[in-house]
Design goal:
Radius of gyration: 17 Å
Strand content: 15-25%
Number of strands: 11
């Protein structure tokens, strides 16, 4: 199946200045003097400044950068959300196109600060609903999204991980009382055919989530990658139901979880 391309050619055209893409529906910004981590913003089609949009904060997988959001968000929704991609905390190449998420104490702190700055800048520049901010990520970005959201559970309306494990070390679960009060909504998506998937690890993470009382929806796909059209459509469906509508029910229609290739739409 065709998946999200591993080619970095789309990263090699990083813009230095703010630029408008897709006739103004999407804009990239290379960061400013206040924030060291560059960001990429995605505006929905027919953006309306008088409407408060949900904000999706995207953490890319290792080997990519903040511009991964421009490949991912169109497969989630072109209309429903504002979105911002955040760059990983550690460079993987000398050219500065590929980044990863360091799980050191310093790396986690850097990632946390970059996410908070991205949320604050999005709220300053655009019309963001302050109670509908969702943190999401793919693989290592998903693990970091979980780590940051559990660190500040009241900052986010929910957290989504596509193939990223719940961190088991560090200060992630240090504020158990706050987590139990918050009952943070989570969506975990797993491709059961991937080399990174382990059933025992998922069971371990579920036990951890039960310990701090989060509301977790687990979606499993008979595939080898979470980066598919169906997985991303489920992200849209979950956000609209859980975050926008505030529905706590977890039932989904049976046809909403049949895997398909990323580029088959």
């Amino acid at each position: 199946m065709n998946r999200l391309s591993c080619s970095m050619s789309w990263n090699e055209s990083l813009s230095v200045n703010a630029a408008s893409i897709d006739q103004g529906s999407s804009r990239q910004h290379a960061g400013d003097s206040r924030v060291h981590s560059p960001k990429s913003f995605f505006l929905p089609l027919h953006y309306e400044a008088r409407y408060q949009y949900p904000l999706l904060v995207w953490l890319h997988s290792d080997g990519f950068n903040e511009n991964q959001i421009n490949q991912v968000i169109p497969h989630i929704s072109l209309r429903n959300f504002l979105a911002v991609g955040v760059r990983g905390s550690r460079a993987m190449d000398a050219a500065g196109h590929r980044y990863e998420w360091s799980d050191s104490a310093a790396g986690i702190g850097t990632a946390h600060d970059a996410v908070i700055h991205a949320v604050d800048e999005a709220a300053e520049r655009f019309s963001v609903h302050p109670e509908r901010i969702v943190l999401a990520g793919y693989r290592s970005g998903g693990a970091m999204a979980l780590r940051i959201a559990l660190r500040q559970p009241r900052k986010f309306a929910g957290v989504i991980s596509l193939g990223g494990w719940l961190p088991q070390r560090g200060p992630t679960l240090a504020n158990l009382d706050e987590l139990r009060k918050r009952r943070l909504p989570m969506l975990w998506q797993w491709a059961t055919g991937g080399d990174h998937y382990r059933d025992e690890n998922l069971k371990r993470d579920i036990r951890s989530a039960m310990m701090f009382g989060s509301c977790v929806d687990v979606r499993q796909y008979v595939d080898d990658d979470e980066m598919t059209n169906v997985c991303l459509a489920d992200v849209n469906q979950w956000m609209m139901r859980r975050v926008v509508a505030g529905d706590t029910a977890s039932e989904m229609s049976p046809w909403e979880s049949t895997p398909t290739s990323f580029s088959s739409n």
